[in-house]
Amino acid sequence: MATTVGSEYDHIEVASGGNAVKHYLKDNTARGLASGLYEGKNLATAFASEIAGYSDAWAWIQARITAGNFNGINVGDYIPVTCTNNTSFDAVIMGINTYKGGPEESPSNARTGNHIDFIFSKAWPTQGKFNLVDYNNGGYYSKYEYTADGSATVKSPYAFDNNLLPRIKNVTRNINLDPGTHYTYNPDTLDITFLSGSIPASGAEMRFMTVRVEHIAFSNIHAYLNSQAHYVPNGTAFRPEVILKDYTTDGVFYYLPSALQNVISGKSLTMPTRYGASELVTTPEDQSTKYLGRIWLLTEVEIYGRAIAGSAKFTSGQVQYPLFKNNTMRIIPDNITSSYDMSMFMTYSEVDGTSDKYSAIKKGYIYSSPPSSTHFFRPCFRVAAG
């Protein structure tokens, strides 16, 4: 009854009477995105003439984000990256303004603005451990003590969330120093900077009064992804022993080209809390907005659209990235080979009902994994308005 003809449309169905009853615009991008088949384009070449007016492709795309101009930029498009350790990958767009309007971890009333979230097309070549031991909780400690050296800025031994910063007591002077009033904290550098009038003298005995750290910021993989040095769990009991892991000249962020490092913004995400004041947590009973750092991994919800092995409680602030809708192939890294086939890839979701398991992806499916197992992982990052 119908015939197909070509024109400015990709597909037109014409009824016998000559009236067009169906037509589809010749727009492979739009149809491909809807079907999950769009392969994406190299933005560095597609916009080469526009990028020529900037120092590099990353400065260009940040300017576009700042202006709210996403014309011609689609989920699945990518920018090639070569790291200083010769690791290469495509930074693939997972979502554009996916979390716009959502809460930021600090300040507490801030909202997320324009942004693009990217994922590495390949697994990072070095495998890692979520934690050194089989432990998926945060930490809750009565105190941490150190001796001041007279410096205004000191490195925090823990990766704190801004909403869990401790009161610091100058024991020698018997005064309490509060965040915001007496010191500031940078979660990317872990710098604590005492403000004028609050700088401890050399030799002063200092004490963090109550230490609370969330399970992501407390983890070994967080330190590795962000090339930081901080305490990580080294035991599995409540209030476990800790060990300092120093990845400041290793990890992932350290090896990214400076042009990319310069435009990366940290990501905040509302997640279940997993620290307890008196015992290990197996099922979360609350949620908070956490700062994941400049480099991070995905949760089950962000990949599959729902919790699977992880707890579904308190995940309403998470959404599936458009890149993973209507397909499975994008879940598996590009550098999958026969040697990778049985490997697992980490997520940021803990297995519900446990204090010693995280969920991991194997051949596109979710499995339960001990945090001390060695796995591959696909780092993610955000570029936000400058």
* First and last CA, distance: 56 Å
Structural Rg: 24 Å
Strand order of the largest sheet: 4-5-6-26-19
Overall spatial form: globular
**Beta-strand percentage range:** 25-35%
Query: Strand count, sense and closure of the main sheet?
Result: 5 strands, antiparallel
**Tally of alpha and pi helices:** 7
Helix content: 10-25%
Topology:
Layout: E1 3-5, E2 9-14, E3 20-25, H1 28-35, H2 43-46, H3 48-51, H4 57-67, E4 78-82, E5 88-96, E6 115-120, E7 128-129, E8 139-141, E9 144-147, E10 153-155, E11 168-170, E12 175-177, E13 183-186, E14 191-194, E15 205-208, E16 211-213, H5 220-225, E17 229-233, E18 242-246, H6 258-261, E19 264-265, E20 267-272, E21 287-293, H7 300-304, E22 345-350, E23 358-362, E24 365-369, E25 374-375, E26 380-384
Antiparallel strand pairs: 1-2, 2-3, 4-5, 5-6, 6-26, 7-25, 8-16, 9-15, 10-14, 11-12, 11-15, 13-14, 17-18, 19-26, 20-21, 22-23, 23-24
